[in-house]
Structure formats: structure tokens, C-alpha cells
Amino acid sequence: MEEKSMTEENMRLLLKNNRTLIDKVNLLLEKLEHYTSAPSTEWLDSGEVCRFLKISSRTLSNYCDKLLLTGYRLGGKLLFRRSEIEEKLKSQSL
What we know:
single chain; 3-stranded antiparallel beta sheet; 2 domains; 3 strands
């Protein structure tokens, strides 16, 4: 009989610890959602920009030379922010 009550007590403790753990995980998930809910930046490579704008790579190069578009180098690759391109299109700067 003593062994049974120890098992029941262990189960109660285990359930209590699980609830505490679940509460902590939920709190962490809420914090994570706060940090990830900010608008994300979509990056496009040169080929994607050319297809998006329906221009040649030479025209894209000219836009960069004339500072109409800003490219960012990352690991030898030229990337563009989609939001900046859309903003230029709206203001008819391209």
C-alpha cells in the first residue's frame, strides 16, 4: 500500500512540473512572437530583380550606377530590398 501512495505522489509532482514547464514554454513563445512579428525584409538577387522589373542585367547595372537602386553585397552576391524597389516604382523614380 505504501508503494502505491508514493507512485500517486510522484504522478502529482510530475503533473505539477509539466504544468510549470508548459507555462514557461508558452511565455517564451509569446516573447518570440513579439520579436518575429516585425515586418520582414524580402531580399531579391539580381536575376529576381530583373524578372520583377522586366529589365536586362545591363539596365539593372545602369540603375545601380545612377544610384536609382541600392544593392547590398553579401558574400559576393548583390542583393536588393524588395520594399525599396516597390517604393521607387510607386514614386516613379524608375
